[in-house]
Amino acid sequence: MTAELVRGQNHPLSQVRLEIRVSADTPIVAAAALSDEAGRIHGVEGVAHPGAPTQPGLEVSRQAAADHRLAVDLDAMPETVHRVSVLLALPVGGAGPVRFGAVAAPYVAVTGLDGAEIASYTITGLDAESAVVALELYRRQGAWKVRAVGQGYAGGLAELLTDQGLPQAQQLAGSINDAVAQGLARSVQAAPPRTADGDRSRQAAAPALGPDQGGTAPQPGPVPPMSPYGGQPSGGPASGGQGQPPGYPGAAADPSAVTQPAGPAAGGGPIDYSHPRRRNAAPPPPPPTAPPAAPGQPAQPVAGDATGWSMEERLYNQVWGMFEDLARTTAAYRSAVDFAESRMDKELEQVLSDPRSRIGGQGDAAREAARARYAQLVDRAREALDRDLAQLKAEADVVEPALPPAYARWDNPVWHAYRVPMEIPMALRLGDLHLPEADRIRIPMLVRLPLERGLWIDSGRTESSEGLFTDAHALGRLAMETAVAHAARLLAVHPAGEFTVHVIDPAGSGAQPLAPLVHSGVLAGPPARGAAGVTDVLTRLTQRVDLVQMAVRGGAADSLPPGFDTSQQLLIVNDFPHGFDDRAVNQLRYLADEGPAFGVHLMMVADREESSGYGPLLDPLWRSLLRLTPVPDDHLADPWVGHAWTYEPTLVPPGSEVLQQVLAQVAAARTKYS
Fold this sequence. Notes:
Layout: E1 3-5, E2 10-12, E3 17-35, E4 47-48, E5 54-55, E6 58-59, E7 65-73, E8 83-89, E9 107-112, E10 117-122, E11 131-140, E12 143-153, H1 156-163, H2 169-183, H3 311-353, H4 355-358, H5 361-402, E13 427-434, E14 443-448, E15 454-458, H6 472-493, E16 499-504, H7 515-520, H8 530-553, E17 568-576, H9 582-594, E18 600-606, H10 619-624, E19 625-628, E20 633-637, E21 644-649, H11 658-673
Parallel strand pairs: 1-10, 15-18, 15-19, 16-17, 17-18
Antiparallel strand pairs: 2-12, 3-4, 3-7, 3-8, 3-9, 5-6, 6-7, 8-11, 9-10, 11-12, 13-14, 13-21, 20-21
Helix pairs in contact: 1-2, 3-5, 6-11, 8-9
């Protein structure tokens, strides 16, 4: 699986013999620099370029070309080499472009000798630069990794090599340009255009999910899957088309949807044997609903502007795209700040290493200049970030009011027009996600349905809750209210009779938060109390899983007993492990592992510390569940660049009757259905 990197992201290398493939739509110069642990090149012999294409463990192209293949053998690198930087530059003195901003973003991939991609990086964000450090292979604790750099230089190769600490930078840049000029007539033509990485059409959405949950992340597409959205990223922004972070689900087209059968080929061509009901093409693009933007102005955001077969799917993919875009632009900003800091540190170190400039006016001026360059770089990065955030905020303001109930917050007016649905939605909102750099932007955290893993509402103290709760009972009650809100939402988005909820509350401590579910009559039965109640519910659900499992695996799913409840089942467990003996604990673990595949889902409201007496026995249980918190907490991480996303649960506004109104409609529909 290819790792689609964004600027600053790294990825481990499992092979030592590699190819680095470069693709651009214009002939460019490819070179590679060998540097020490501090990133310094100690001489012209440390640079492989068209005039000197081979170095120990390294070989580059001999001419400018639109496509390059650089050969790398990391085992053959001298011990003094700790970094291998891949350098790209536009040829000088010709009729071609003089800045990368005038051409399509170059694409760089690290592959094995068999051609299988290990990591790739599309170098976006370049403008006046004519040379760029694309990526670097670096040695860390005896192992090699690749990092996406993307640092450009308007001054070309001379400025780039100077920044790498090479004393003969000007002379080497001149010799490289001379060697390129001699072979420029042999340049390879531009490759066919590739799909842009930043394309917001979002052909597919991918789920991503919980950082610390070990959830499946969407695969990155051109950059690609928030996403905390459970699933695989589709070709979304960072996911590259796979998706499912701190937990986002991927959006896949419904395989049963109807498409028009293809007619016979004109002129007696081959017959099309494709099934007329099978979707084998990309979903249709959204209809144009907004006038084109004025020249130089950003496009006006429109709800549902992503690709999809329905408005629900388009909104889902659009939310995924917003998540990926926010992850990507924040990663670029953090990378730029890190680079500015490392550059300033390097410049200050050079000042301090020279006794002549360590003190006095010359040293002070050098230090001030270094700090000024740092501030300039950070200001430029912040300006770009603010521009992207403004566009995302405008999009969020348009999308949020247009979301259907399954995707909407409890305070969205769409709930006041709620009606029990006839179909199960593709995803469900479990909360909001945001980053510290963009606190005003909330991205809905959507997970695919049916749930692929259980939920754990953590009632234990977190760093975020230390100052909010002095009473552990109050935090536990809030955790139970969060579980009730999630359960009510699950009931509300399923058709009548398609979702059943069971509750285990051994000590009755959750009686007050559970009141809306109990009084509305939407539960399968009263909350189970005591050890006997725990045993009864767990035994019935484990037997159900066993029965469905045997029927499915035996190919006899249509031979279940008459009257068998085929609806999805949710078990809410409060106060674990109170009331659980060893047998009950094993049954709970069985439901967590096997239940989701056979229609039984688990929602735990528990403090992990209270079950510490079981030791490592319960570690697999906690790892199998998606951990959520009743208070904002930065415990989710996306699968692309590992941002720590702050999760906020969606709770019913204080004093609102929306929960009771929704549950009343669910109960009435269940009564009519039965």
